[in-house]
UniProtKB/TrEMBL annotation:
Pfam families reported for this sequence: HTH_3
HTH cro/C1-type domain residues: 14-67
Protein name in the entry: Helix-turn-helix transcriptional regulator
Organism, scientific name: Flavobacterium azizsancarii
CDD domains assigned: HTH_XRE
Keyword Secreted belongs to the record: no
Top-rank taxon, per record: Bacteria
PANTHER family (alphabetical): DNA-BIDING PHAGE PROTEIN, TRACRIPTIONAL REGULATORY PROTEIN-RELATED-RELATED
Membrane-traversing stretches: none
Highest classification ranks of the organism: Bacteria, Pseudomonadati, Bacteroidota, Flavobacteriia, Flavobacteriales
Keywords annotated in UniProt: Coiled coil, DNA-binding
Alphabetized PROSITE patterns for the sequence: HTH_CROC1
Length: 135
């Protein structure tokens, strides 16, 4: 096994990011207005022109720096943090009250407001009737 570091193979990085974005070569080619074969040759290239890299990054929805600095280890670690913190998300999303109790409280409050409104209307009608009788 060699101890040499892997070269910075931009094409492989583009390929992996494309795969992680669940995008086919054809879709990326269409977004760039080029052929699928050109995408294949880009992904097999160790280097790429800066202008083309900018276009590819835009089509993939990432920055040029994200492509240049991409590594499998970082991607795996990034996605693993979601699994590790699942318990924290569940902790923050648990209710400290019964939602049905809150709903019933709102229903009761609405009922009281409706009864008050109805009483106010009845009082207004009685007042108007008294005014009509006086005239």
């Amino acid at each position: 096994m060699s101890t040499l570091t892997k070269p910075n193979h931009i094409g492989r990085k583009i390929s992996r990011i494309r795969e992680l974005r669940d995008m086919k070569q054809e879709a990326l080619a269409q977004a760039l207005g080029i052929s699928q074969q050109t995408i294949s040759s880009i992904e097999n290239s160790e280097t790429i022109e800066e202008e083309r890299l900018i276009e590819v990054a835009k089509a993939l929805g990432v920055t040029v720096e994200a492509i240049k600095n991409f590594s499998e280890e970082l991607a795996i670690n990034y996605f693993n943090t979601f699994n590790e913190s699942d318990n924290n998300f569940n902790h923050y999303n648990t209710c400290t009250f019964n939602p049905l109790d809150k709903l019933m409280e709102a229903v009761e409050e609405n009922k009281k407001l409706y009864e008050r409104l109805l009483k106010a209307e009845q009082d207004k009608n009685e007042y108007l009737e008294k005014l009509l009788q006086v005239k």
